[in-house]
Amino acid sequence: MTVPTFPPGFLWGASASAFQTEGAADTDGKGPSGWDAFAAQPGRIKDGTDTTRGTGFHEHYREDVALLAGLGADAFRFSVSWPRVVPGGSGPVNPAGLDFYDRLVDELCAHGIAPAPTLYHWDTPLPLDEAGGWLNRDTAYRFAEYAGIVAERLADRVPMWITINEPAEVTMLGYALGEHAPGRTLLFDALPAAHHQLLAHGLGVRALRAAGATNIGIAVSHTPVWTAGESEEDRLGAELYDTITNWMFADPILAGRYPDENVAALMPGSVEDDLRTISTPLDWYGVNYYNPTLVGAPRAEALDTFSGFEMPAELPFGIREIEGYETTDFGWPVVPDGLRETLVQLRDRYGDRLPPLYITENGCAVDEAVTDTRRIAFIEGHLGALHTAIGQGVDVRGYFTWSLTDNIEWIEGTSKRFGLVHIDYETLRRTPKRSYAWYRDVIRSQKAAGTA
Ligand code: GCO
């Protein structure tokens, strides 16, 4: 095995989310989410998967916790479904919903696995989506209330909290391009959805702390942006893309400002006051990394596609294909050094203001049934790059691979498999893949090295 030795105490984990795994979409008083409604519209889920079953996690969670225990994982990053806990988005709490997470947390603790819940992994309660979702400032206040409710119940046993997952994807795919729930196609008019998620994060951090939670972070996607071509238009296109996907989210959180005035001017309300809330100091910052992005001038001809999403030609940048690297089943290039590049960028940009980092997601879609050697190579490569980044002085405290099991990959349905564990969607049978045994051995040998 060629995974280098990480610092003692480095945390080894796996990630998942509620909509992608739980199923039980209307069991025990859960309300519908915007994603439930969106996925039920004909043609939205490309392979026609019925997303209401998930992987059956709501029913099979004990089996999955046993799999985590078999892996030797230190922590499990799952998400709490907001409409399971507060079905109306505000108002009465659903006790059976909270009870489920209480049982899950107990089960994890009983196996010595730290529960690391994400409070928002995209499943907005439908009534809030119908009232404008993240375009409506009120959603941020409702989120904070809900965060407080969950913490009141679980903070005594949860050692690590994540407010929100990937606000950039929600903004871009959900509100700008309409590929994800709630299916809005507002292009740059989508930016208020970014601001309100950031505000929700800041208010959420405060509500969590007020309810006794500690060790709070967020999971933000980062992609190093590479410039395609050498013209001024290429440079401007790449710079704009970098701004709106990376820094429009990281800067408010970590530096209390928007990356430039043009972006700030497109945001609603009294941005200055909000930025103070948004930049409430965090205990740590989570990075979701999959691949770099090559961007240049807009392309006149028709549409670019990015990760299978169509990019309208009127956007002021154009995404190009990265050539010369192996790709995953999503067509994403496998560039482990991009992880190091991103981490070093974060360190250089924020210096002392940067809290310790965790990799909250990293993984790949490969359809190799259970003999998933490409996944092993992917994770191994990225752990190598991560180790190099640590050697270059970036303070990274842990790594969560995406994902423990195969799951519903949003609009791709079950056709993209990210798991260490295979799911048979007919029987919901779980079968550990070769990568599961490999990751278990990595964790074991890291622990042995740490105590040697
Ligand atoms: C994310 C998504 C995950 C995806 C994963 C692979 O945070 O990007 O939330 O749910 O499944 O990233 O695309």
Task: Tell me what the structure shows.
- GO terms for molecular function: beta-glucosidase activity.
- This is Beta-glucosidase.
- This protein has 452 residues and is α/β, with parallel strands linked by helices.
- It has a single domain, classed as Glycosidases (TIM Barrel, Alpha-Beta Barrel).
- Helices cover 41% and strands 15% of the residues.
- The chain is built from 15 helices and 15 strands.
- It has an 8-stranded parallel barrel, surrounded by 6 helices.
- β14 and β15 form a beta hairpin.
- The model has no long low-confidence stretch (mean pLDDT 96).
Rg is 20 Å
What are the bound molecules? D-gluconic acid
Q: Do you know the CATH topology?
A: TIM Barrel
The total tally of domains equals 1
Oligomer: single chain
Which shape, going by the Cα principal axes? globular
Salient structural properties:
41% helix, GH, Glyco_hydro_1_beta-glucosidase, alpha/beta, three-stranded mixed β-sheet, 15 helices, 15% strand
Offer a concise description of the structure.
By secondary structure, the protein is of the alpha/beta class. 41% of the residues lie in helices and 15% in strands.
